[in-house]
Amino acid sequence: MSHDVIELQEGAVLVADAHYADYRPLFKSLIDKIESGTIETTQLVLMGDVFDLLFAPMSRLQHNEADIIRQLNRLSQKIEIIYLEGNHDFLLKKIFPRMKIYTLAQQPVAARFKGKSGWLAHGDWGGDLKFRVFTKIIRSSFNLFFLNLLDRLFFYRISDGFRRRLASKKICSDFRGFEEHIKKRFLDHPGYKGWFVEGHYHQGSSFSMEALFYRNLSALACNQSYFVVQSNKDEISLSECTL
User: Fold this and answer.
1) Are residues 158 and 58 in contact, defined by beta-carbon separation less than 8 angstroms?
2) Is 232's pLDDT higher than 90?
3) DSSP state for residue 239 in the 8-state scheme
4) First to last CA, the chain
5) Given this model, what pLDDT does residue 1 score?
6) Phi, psi for 50 (deg, rounded to 5)
7) How many CB atoms lie within 10 A of CB 5?
8) CA 19 to each of CA 23, 24, 75: distance values in angstroms, whole numbers, following the listed order
9) Worst-scoring range by mean pLDDT, 28-37, 161-170, 229-238?
10) With contact defined as beta carbons under 8 Å apart, do 144 and 159 qualify?
């Protein structure tokens, strides 16, 4: 968990789970509209899994997404971009040097809007010991450095194989028992109050839990949805928009 506090701005754009790749290109349409001013905002919050597969040590993955990486870096010189790393995109600081990057270890991140406190996360935080060990292994720069060497040695068959499997993966489905799953997680990790916004699950649902209002964002890849921060009597309101 980070000790930083994200100050959300009125009109900020939030986007979750775009799973961008050449076989799923919708995210670029959103960035094109922000860059051209068709969608006006001074703050963009990327809620993780924006890319279907991107991490700095793997050179092939950066090469595949070179155009959109350049475009995002250009945009980050004009507006504030905050990036909460997901389970498909991590170790991003070297790729996006001007962005404010939050790793999994720093999430959930405290946030404020008009003085009201809340939390932002990609959504893959918590979990049991086995899951936490797994996340550390796959996010190891040391391990990925050697995986990149192997990938280059075998003419990028490893990274290209990853992409082929992800391209055929079904990512849009209902999570039965989702509300119960989330409520149990907060019982295991108590202390969160105010509002809590995350992606990861692609469910687009919301509900209240005692002192906490929870919202899971729809996935851009599934619903063509992004969200705009608005105020409702000084309370945070997320308006769902469709590309």
Assistant:
1) no
2) no
3) E
4) 32
5) 67
6) -70, -35
7) 11
8) 10, 7, 19
9) 229-238
10) no
Q: Which two tokens stand for residue 219?
A: 């996935």
Query: What is the rounded radius of gyration, in angstroms, for the C-alpha atoms of the chain?
Result: 18
Q: Rounded distance, CA 211 to CA 56, Å? A: 39
Distance (Å) of CA 116 to CA 123, 158, 206: 21, 46, 18
In whole angstroms, give the CA distance from residue 103 to residue 90.
Answer: 7
Backbone angles phi, psi at 21, to 5 degrees: -165, 175
Neighbours of 47 (CB within 10 A): 28
Task: Return d(Cα 156, Cα 60) in angstroms, integer.
Answer: 7
In percent, the amount of the chain with pLDDT more than 90 equals 91
Question: Whole-angstrom Cα distance, residue 62 to residue 43?
Answer: 24
Nearest one of 26, 224, 171, 225 to 215, comparing CA atoms: 225
At 23 the three-state DSSP class reads coil
Cβ neighbors of 178 (< 8 A, separation 6 or more) are 201, 203, 205, 216
In this predicted model, what pLDDT tens digit does every residue of 70-85 receive, in sequence order? 999 999 999 999 999 9
